Amino acid sequence: MKSRFRIITALCAAALTVSCLAGCQKKETSKSVLDPKNPTAISVWNYYNGAQLTAFNEMVDSFNETRGKELGIVVSSFSQGSVSDLQTNVMNAVTGKVGAEEVPNIFAAYADTAYETDRMGVLVNLADYLTEEQRALYIDGYINEGDFDGSGSVKIFPIAKSTELFLLNETDWLPFAQATGATAQDFATMEGLVETAQRYYEWTDSLTPEPNDGKAFYGRDAMANYILIGGMQLGCEIFSVQDGKAVINFDHDVVRTLWDYYYVPFIKGYFASSGRFRSDDIKTGNILSFTGSSSGATFFPKKVTTEEEEHEITMQVFPAPQFAGGKPYAVQQGAGMVVTKKSEAEIVASVEFLLWFTQDERNISFSIDSGYMPVTKTANTKEAIAQHAGEVDPAISLILDAAIETVQNNTLYTTKAFQNGVAARNILEYCLSDQAVADRALVEQALEAGQSLEDAVAPYVSDDYFEQWYQGVLAKLNQLEI
Predict the structure, then answer these.
(1) pTM (2 decimals)?
(2) Are strands 310-312 and 303-305 parallel, antiparallel or unpaired?
(3) Which of 217, 341, 390, 430 is the most buried (most CB within 10 A)?
């Protein structure tokens, strides 16, 4: 009996050993599908432009000459233009639209696009190709963004991220600050920002004999972020998502606060927007500051050009203002990379490229060149960037310092993907900003007709007017099939 028990035990141990070896072998020998003598070609679609595209392509070239050559991988990079162009081209390829290109091996995607293509059965679950040690290297919120069903899947691989910052035309701020005693601390909160913007409008108005010709102080990119992140700071998740199903929490009181701290100062002329991006408004002298993406901060203009004159300006960077007493939330944004279902060699080659790209030294190098932030835990420190970066452009240094401070001092938030998530976000993107622009135009007409600012804005700041707008937006959201 004892002999039989020893035999069974030995057989079980042997089976466990074989099983373990098989599991370990999957991770250790997956590269065996690659052959340096017959390189595997993979394509990457991105939406980078300018310095960001140059930085990315240089990284691709470096990979091809080093690690890619060693393993037998050749990566080709293709910019599709804008984020919108990329999304359109990806969906055309995935759905097989006539004239569309072949689906790439890797493409940059935000969560909503990744979610839609995943539902079509296109994406690889990269959790099957990563060890636990590899996965643990990345900031949790970044690596978990593509876990659509809560199973621990990795459908989006993070390569570079951004958050939002407050960008200031320091040159033209200084005369106002010296004249009024204003400091950067004044716009650390949304409440302080509105007060500062009002002071700036009134100060610039006082410099001319004409009434009501004060200048706007502030603008904002990505209005959906203002509503979503502002909501989180105020204790309300506008879209709460579980297993791809969304619940709309368009809380009346929270939304009224968001209205009061954007729409109201906008129609009074304290905030403004006219160009495609707020950096355009900085360039034309339309505003003095704005909240925008840390990656987009690299496009901050070096000059203000008006019809009357042109002068150089310097940029200063701060964390984005938050609601006083609110919860410390900041936006997590920036597309990741998704891998599509191709041959095993192409999938392995894609994973190898992404892992190589996000090793600390290289990821920091790309971040410095592009204005994005690294994605690993060890790379997201000022010390790590200083160690690997060498000499850094002063403007990029300002951006990264403020971005890292934001990451370290806040809970990063991005909405989970859900059906019609793009449509829902678009409603938030335009519902408040479009109303503000339209009504500001009417206020300006009233001012030109001789009304005071108080009388001109009176029809638009009533409870009834807000209620009409609120119910209209809520109805649009409720009509979506989510």
Answers:
(1) 0.86
(2) antiparallel
(3) 217
